[in-house]
Amino acid sequence: MSASLLPLQASLGVLLFTCLAFCLLPEPALGITRHYQLDINLQNVTRLCHTKSMVTANGQFPGPRIVAREGDNLLIRVVNHVQNNISIHWHGIRQLRSGWADGPAYITQCPIQTGQSYVYNYTIVGQRGTLWWHAHISWLRSTLYGPLIILPKRGVPYPFAKPYKEIPIIFGEWFNADTEAIINQALQTGGGPNVSDAYTLNGLSGPLYNCSAKDTFKLKVKPGKTYLLRLINAALNDELFFSIANHTLKIVEVDAVYVKPFDTEILLITPGQTTNVLLQTKPNFPNATFLMTARPYATGQGTFDNSTVEGILEYESPSNSIHSSIKKLPLFKPTLPALNDTAFAATFTSKLRSLANAQFLANVPQNVDKKFFFTVGLGTNPCPINQTCQGPSNTTMFSASVNNVSFTMPTTAILQSHFFGQSNGVYTPDFPTTPIVPFNYTGNPPNNTMVSVELVLQDTSILGAESHPLHLHGFNFYVVGQGFGNYDPNKDPAKFNLVDPVERNTVGVPSGGWVAIRFLADNPGVWFMHCHLEVHTSWGLKMAWLVLDGKLPNQNLLPPPADLPKC
User: Fold this and answer.
1) Of 86, 217, 292, 438, which is most buried by a Cβ count within 10 Å?
2) Quick check: pTM over 0.85?
3) Are strands 88-91 and 129-135 parallel, antiparallel or unpaired?
4) Under a CB-based contact definition with an 8 Å cutoff, are residues 259 and 311 in contact?
């Protein structure tokens, strides 16, 4: 099969790539059609003794759980009852030929305006596990998110013993202020945005925060049982360490892909990532309760919410015995790594490996058609004339970029402009495949701040080295290598894992290092790629890939739905 790759640059600053794929897409598996409706409305919610009106789905915070099986077709009607424009992204869903349902505003669709609705219509093909959904416009995902659980096909077991119970746990952030006002002020002044006031577990802030003892997530378990915890990091801007005191967690899945199981007492999860763990409870009532805690992993120089969220693991006492009150039982607390423990982060991520067995293959591209090298990092832009800014200096504004170019959001959806042949003024094919100005990426900063694809993402230290969780829409990819310092194209590929690398949709670019991923460009459409730290995305650390139709009808993007929102 022949293939070609055409890099694109948007004339309005939109970063775009084009991959021309002739790969046959898998046929959808037979399933049932499931209908959901999300009514986007304002709801008063109180945390930290502070009540605010915020955007929610069906009045719930976090939002409702969406459950399906592999092979099912989902029809999810989203109705916008608020003044904000709305779009919803189904994070991690491949959206094979259904790019119109991916959700990022002005990329695959115009947002849903006040009083309007849109039906997201997609089929789950070849995926099972924990994913999630969230708003994909401005900072609205701070309150508008929820779990998306994909069960295996009926009759197909997990590749591990069936758990006694399955429990989603979503990490989030709580802001007393309106997050739209926070980011708007930051973009206007050029400074860093105010940080959150608390972290949350399933929307609850826990006993360490002011006025929050009653808002504590409690996980009640029985002795001698195995629980599947579906962990989701929905925090806006923070990677998180997580642990349960005196308990071991068995990692069995990340980003809805099974992995070789391994035990750990502590895990790391970046914004956008999901991790399934098995929790084996103690064989007998332990006469104790146990804290589960999460706090940030932070490597940059910017401010962040340096606090800890706590939940409580409680054992149900046997009905035929008398135990003291839960409040009188000893309470054990886990120990988490230091805030900047990059060594732990690297060690943990290196343990993740695909199952790579006969049932769950690791189809890692062994040969690469196109190679790309992207630098990702923070920088500065000069202040507008006659304006004082609040960036690193009073004459500069924070910015972020891919290959030294910052993304500017268009005013019409890129996928629509491509499909209808109206791309003039939206994008042009000249985005750089390597940095415009090469430099020592992790050393002293410069003075001025069935195409198989290999992409190396390199962190930079212009304003200090920092970890960046990069999310690619429309694809899973294999993490074939990572390291610290500058990527060496002559030496580092020899150390790539092409046998059982972990398969993900969101990967952390190591602080002061690089990560190499490979994927097959087999899904026609426009696919966003961006840092999942919302502050970096707001500053411009985002771009898109355009995958053209193949030669056969079942390789083509399906036509747009009739109710597709208009800009």
Assistant:
1) 86
2) yes
3) antiparallel
4) no
